[in-house]
Amino acid sequence: MIEAVCWDVGGVFSGRPADAVAAIASEHDLEADDIFTAIFGPYHLDGDHAWHRLERGEIALKDAWGEVETAIAGLGLELTLMDFFRRFGDDPHDRAIVSDTVRALHGQGIEMGIITNNVKEFSESETGGWRSIVPIDVMRIVIDSSAVGMRKPNPAIYHHTLAELGVGAANAVFLDDMQANVDAAVAIGMHGIVVGADPGPAMAELNALVDRLS
Question: Which candidate among 37, 95, 118, 143 keeps its CA 20 to 30 Å from the CA of 131?
């Protein structure tokens, strides 16, 4: 039986970073993987890249982005932080289906939670920022990497989340746009669903999973 559903934020409730990077790469005739790694580091790992340290709350955004700008300059690309994050607004897909699914499942008595690799500077407002795109009122817990000092795909953040929710891994689902983050959740026994550019199929998969295990 599914007792809890845990959600990523960026790429699930908003446009996906990978799609924003792909658009930039296409415009500049560069490899998307090279740009993504320069900005976010090898995202299948939890390492020492500036963005990883930023998401663990170890350094400030201004310092991390300085390192990122140096890395992307090495690719012959000039890109400000605001330039990059504006690209998320170019998402062509209606994300209302995600919030609608959250509320519907919560109405069935299933606990909701957030597991986000986030930046402290993006989390300081309790009502604005990323919280404004999430049905935060029905989220029982919010596990923010910059607050807890650990980030996906480190198994510790999933174990921490399950302990906070008080549910077993086999009774929980995790949704994320990054395959490596979903794989890490599945490795500890959770159910995992990857959210694609269009979130509709993932929401259908989630509802089918809940129905099958009810």
Answer: 37
